[in-house]
TrEMBL record:
This is Gfo/Idh/MocA family oxidoreductase. Residues 126-244 form the GFO/IDH/MocA-like oxidoreductase domain. The keyword Oxidoreductase applies. Residues 244-274 are annotated as: Disordered. It comes from the Bacteria. Belongs to the Gfo/Idh/MocA family. Residues 244-254 have a biased composition (Basic and acidic residues).
Length: 337
């Protein structure tokens, strides 16, 4: 198997290294808008560097991994699908909902294979939480709490094209709400604050946000996110049921300190970022893609699954802007299968 990987920045380099180690992945063709960067990574991994992205589609590959900047995802996914190639695409598929719908309609019309990168589906803690909820061990869920807290804001030029805190960051929480509970979000009410660093106000984004989500069975969910958590990288999901409650993401590296006299000690080595925290999960999702291309597994996150999380994020952004409750039925969607 020959895999073409487009985009050799931070996440692309991580994916390339994982594929280079994979016993079933075969050879690797790397491409980037900066050919020199692709060449340096290829030299380090023993892979082949293409002089441009074009060569990924003309030199012959069996599958494509899209890890480029967000604004290029849609075009690359469509081109791969039109060429009959299975695609793994880092989220998002496209920068906004309408363009995402356009891409997914084409994927569906052509019968293409698209896996979208929502890595928390492969994290051990979230997997266990899902099993406990689905088995009934917690009883009827009444409350779910999620949080994603980045240790420091990204650069201003990244913010300008990120899609905003809900779409770029908290969309992972929204995916987990659906995937862990097995229920759909039907209504949201969201708010945000840009009181932090000035680049958020300059780009029309917020540095901190909160949302209340209502699920189709009446379960209430609170989701919070921030780009300014100086204590470290903190991602958690708490699920409270009538019988028991559990937390995914709570361990000896969680960057939070107890104020109780007999509370647990603060983390001596808090998580510093998403690649460190979710490294094994990122590797596992690429492993799943290789198996999928070989016809040896189910798609763990197809375009419709990714779309469902994005629609929640879009509803939150609409709610924040218009200061009102938003029902998911207000947003466009793909027709049911």
């Amino acid at each position: 198997m020959r895999i073409g990987l487009i985009g050799t920045g931070r996440i692309g380099s991580f994916h390339a290294a994982a594929l280079a180690r994979h016993p079933e992945a075969g050879s690797l063709l790397l491409a980037d808008s900066d050919p020199a960067r692709a060449a340096r990574l290829a030299d380090r991994l023993g892979a082949t560097a293409a002089p441009s992205v074009e060569q990924v589609f003309t030199w012959g590959v069996d599958a494509v991994v899209v890890a480029s900047s967000t604004d290029g995802h849609a075009e690359l996914v469509v081109r791969a699908i039109r060429g009959g190639l299975p695609v793994f695409c880092e989220k998002p598929v496209a920068p906004d909902l309408n363009r995402t719908l356009s891409v997914l309609r084409e994927v569906s019309a052509l019968g293409g294979l698209l896996q979208v990168g929502y890595m928390r589906r492969f994290d051990a803690g979230y997997l266990t939480a899902r099993e406990l909820v689905r088995s009934g061990a917690l009883g009827r869920l009444h409350t779910v709490r999620t949080m994603t807290a980045d240790p420091a804001p990204p650069a201003a030029d990244y913010l300008a094209t990120s899609g905003g805190l809900y779409r770029d960051c908290m969309v992972h929480d929204f995916d987990m709400v659906r995937w862990v509970t097995g229920h759909e979000v039907v209504e949201v009410y969201a708010a945000g604050s840009d009181a932090g660093p000035p680049q958020f106000r300059q780009t029309g984004d917020v540095d901190t946000a909160a949302a209340v989500l209502t699920l189709d069975d009446g379960t209430l969910v609170t989701s919070t996110g921030t780009r300014c958590n100086g204590a470290g990288y903190d991602v958690r999901m708490e699920l409270a049921g009538e019988r028991d409650q559990v937390s995914a993401g709570l361990d000896d590296r969680t960057p939070i300190a107890s104020t109780e006299p007999n509370g647990p000690p603060p983390a001596s080595k808090p998580w510093t970022g998403f690649l460190e925290r979710f490294g094994p999960a990122y590797e596992a999702e690429l492993n799943a893609f290789v198996h999928l291309v070989r016809g040896a597994g189910e798609n763990p996150c197809d375009g419709r699954e990714a779309l469902a999380a994005l629609r929640v994020a879009e509803a939150c952004e609409l709610s924040r802007r218009e200061r009102r409750r938003v029902r998911l039925e207000e947003l466009p969607d793909l027709p049911e299968r």
